[in-house]
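Issue 218. Parser rejects a valid record. Input:
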Amino acid sequence: MTITNNRGESIVFGRRFFIKEDFEISGLGANVNMSESTLDGAHYQSTTLSTRDIEVPFYIKKLNTEPWWIEEKRQEVYRVCNPKFNPMRIDFVTKSGEALYVTANLTAAPFFPKGFENDNKKWQNGLLQFVATDPFIYEAATRKVDIALWVSNLEFPLEVVEEGIEIGYRSPSLIVNVLNEGSESSGMSIRFTALSEVVNPKLLNVNTYEAFNLNFKMLPGDVIEASTYKGRRKITLIRNNVKTNIFNNLDFMSSTFLQLEPGDNLLRYDAKSGLDFLEVSIEYTPKRIGV
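Output the parser choked on:
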């Protein structure tokens, strides 16, 4: 496990600091909203997930019994795990080897209990207490799917024949299935790349007919990066290594910030013109409610 504060400073467990017991990350609560009824029971209205309380019991292995040494290690924990440096990212690896993380806030400074069972010649026990206002667990590595791209056809050693060689070919499919293996819908990062002039690129969900449409003429070499994550929505043009906000070029009348629902999501790309010169890829991070 690694805990990193908002200044980029980290505590790495498994060196001098060790997790005392298994990291508990299941049993997320839910708020079930209902209204009273004249009939038996009640009317169900909606459900929201609760915040997630996280406790990290740990110990400092005393490689040196000098008082100054253990005080130095306690101060290292205090310095990194300062509630003023919230939010914090908790990275951890499951027994099966999956790398995951949660974002949480310390609700108190690190606690170091006294008494021989907590502080002796071998160890110093400690406790970190967090609350995750975003209750989801995220995969540490984002997933990338190429929807439209040119595929290299070069092989080495290279032999050039008289009639010429095909150095690349267009991916034939306009539709790709994006599998969201998470427990909840997720936003995504969409990347449009223009190899030549492309007018009004868009991405369409074939299942729901929702679309992400841009009213914009892309020039050769242009890249448009769009984020549909809730709370982080933006659209940026990269032209000649200069970034420009083009959020107002979204077709607000016919567009939505597409989300990937749990399970299969059929996505199709399109453009008013220049479709064959458009490359499209997306990146996303599945969200889980427990591991």
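Fixed in the parser; the record now loads. The first strand starts at residue 2 and ends at 4.
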